[in-house]
Amino acid sequence: MDDPDQLYDDLFEDLEDGRAIIKTSLHELEDRIKDLSNEAEELKAQVRNLQQENEGLSKQNEILTRNISCLFKTAQMEISRKDKQIKALQQESLCASTSGARSVPLAIARADSLPAKEQTVATVFPALSNGGRRQDEAGISSKKDSSTENEASRDFVTVQKQSVEGRVRHENRLDMSKRNEDRRLGRQHRDRTDAVRVNDAYDKYEKYQDDTRKREREDKHREEHEKRRHREEHERRRHDEGYHGRSTTDAGGRRPSSHAARGHWKVHERTEFAVS
Fold this sequence. Notes:
Blueprint: H1 4-124, H2 129-243, H3 258-275
Helix pairs in contact: 1-2
């Protein structure tokens, strides 16, 4: 039958071993909780950064949408104004050509009516041949006048048409130069915007690299600190166990039992007592 003191010593040593194991597990759990809390804080920071970037992109999208709608409305107004100008010029040209075409038949009708009257008078009243001759001369002069008037009207219509075409060509040239200038300004604006976007992207990439290197250094430092702390704790535990006359492992790398450790401690105790 075992001695009560021996049983008590065994129970006390088992209790101490259990406490040491619990302390070690507790420290490991605390370290793990700290690591997880740090990772959670980093994830929260990343989420906040992503939310800020998303808000910035949303604002840029709204600004671009407003600018595009304004440009579209301006283009529609410009197109409607040009259409009105073209219609007005076409109406003006049509009115000028219609007035010239009206004057030509009237002049021809006047020129044709005079010889007919003269022939009728010469046929009915042959005695009035001298008067008929004078009327022929008057008809010839009226024909000349009508032809001159017709040529003048044609020249007027031609001049009006040329002036209208010239104005239209001038407007088209102005529109073309304005469109080219708008295209050039648009290209410059796009180039500047692309350059700013590239610079921002490069700055963000540099910041990301710096943050990554910083996190790696912090992780390495934390890992070294944890290793050093575990090593110090292990050394302290070994020192405490060695103070009671026990070692953590035997020659074969195995942990000795409580009976072997107790016997080892008893041997040391007896040796020290004998020496004293």
